[in-house]
Specification:
Elements: E1 21-26, E2 48-55, H1 57-60, E3 72-75, E4 81-82, E5 91-95, E6 99-103
Antiparallel strand pairs: 1-2, 1-5, 2-3, 3-6, 4-5
């Protein structure tokens, strides 16, 4: 009887950000402007939008950060760390200070 070889690679199924960070799935980059002008692949856009996949426990328990899972956010990619977890490499661990805006359907109610 031949034993199957053990794989030395571990397949990860979950990524949990630590500290004041969130895991964001980057939106597909826009390839043309609203006016129909095609953008080259090398066009550099300083901010990126995406959806929060997971938030760290530190962010979840901190009322100063109004971020929730599935929020659409605008973030600065400078300190975003790409996660080599999926073949399309669309996941980034982003420090909350680099999340510059959250898109909401309505404005929050003021007390």
């Amino acid at each position: 009887m031949v034993k199957p070889e053990k794989s030395t690679r571990t397949k990860f199924e979950y990524v949990e950000p630590i500290g004041l960070r969130v895991l964001v799935r980057k939106d597909e980059p826009k390839r043309e402007t609203k006016g129909g002008i095609a953008l080259p692949d090398s066009a550099e856009i300083p901010t990126i939008t995406g959806r929060i996949v997971t938030i760290s426990a530190a962010v979840e328990n901190d009322n100063d950060f109004p971020l929730r899972q599935y929020d659409k956010v605008l973030f600065h990619p400078k300190n975003a760390i790409p996660v080599d977890f999926e073949s399309d490499n669309q996941l980034f661990v982003v420090p909350v200070e680099d999340v510059v805006a959250v898109f909401r359907k309505e404005a929050p109610k003021k007390p």
